[in-house]
Amino acid sequence: MESLLFWFFTFGMLLGGIGVIANxxxxxxxxxxxxxxxxxxxxxxxxxxxxxAAIQIIVYAGAVMVLFLFxxxxxxxRAEAKRPFRxxxxxxxxxxxxxxxxxxxxxxxxxxxxxxxxxFGNSDNITAIGNLLFTRYLLPFEVTSLLLLVxxxxxxLLSKKELK
Amino acid sequence: MNIGLxxxxxxxxxxxSLGLFGIIFRRNLIVIFMCLELMLNASNLTLVAFSRFTQHxxxxxxxxxxxxxxAAEVAVGLALVVAIFRIKGNGKTESLKELKF
Lengths: 164, 101
Hints:
The complex is a heterodimer of chains A (164) and B (101).
Chain A: H1 2-22, H2 26-46, H3 50-74, H4 87-109, H5 125-133, H6 138-158
Helix pairs in contact in A: 1-2, 2-3
Chain B: H1 5-25, H2 29-53, H3 58-88
Helix pairs in contact in B: 1-2, 2-3
């Protein structure tokens, strides 16, 4: 059952990824990214990361993708759909991506059966994450708030009308 | 068939390669940004997979921080894209060549 779910979520995720790069319409790309992210949240569920699966749906499929769709619809991107297919860039990108994938796949092959999975679905995941987040990782957690403040100020400054 | 760590890692590598392909191939700034998100998600999947297979929960904390940083990055990045659109009038990477030698 677990392996069936793994293949289902993985193929959904990869098909969504292909949709992102194959669609000429940026809105369709953004919706494919939503599909890919939702299937990835399913993989997180299989990996005992229940809290992260919820966060993935809320933050990525909710907040981030709404931002993407909002910007795509705000800007006029119709010229994108009419451009010719670029074979040279396609081949360069294909070769680089395939080489990268083969390299990683060969390295991961050496990890075969060296690790044993934790039993599925027994842990109280959120309690453990909360305990770690407010003890060992308290300082990074607080620094994150500063990062979000800086990002907010930067976004407001960049979208002011009189940009020098 | 038993699903091991290497299956998750290969799935993550495939997603990362798709993002890499998109970044090289596409010329639209917003689509390149989406491919960047794909690559970030692939690395997150690696961290979560190692978190289950080494029985440490720390990997999930890292992913929590990565998602936070990615949200901030998207906000700033899309503000930059809008600013580029306002100055250049389009979102193609060909029109950004001031630093070209």
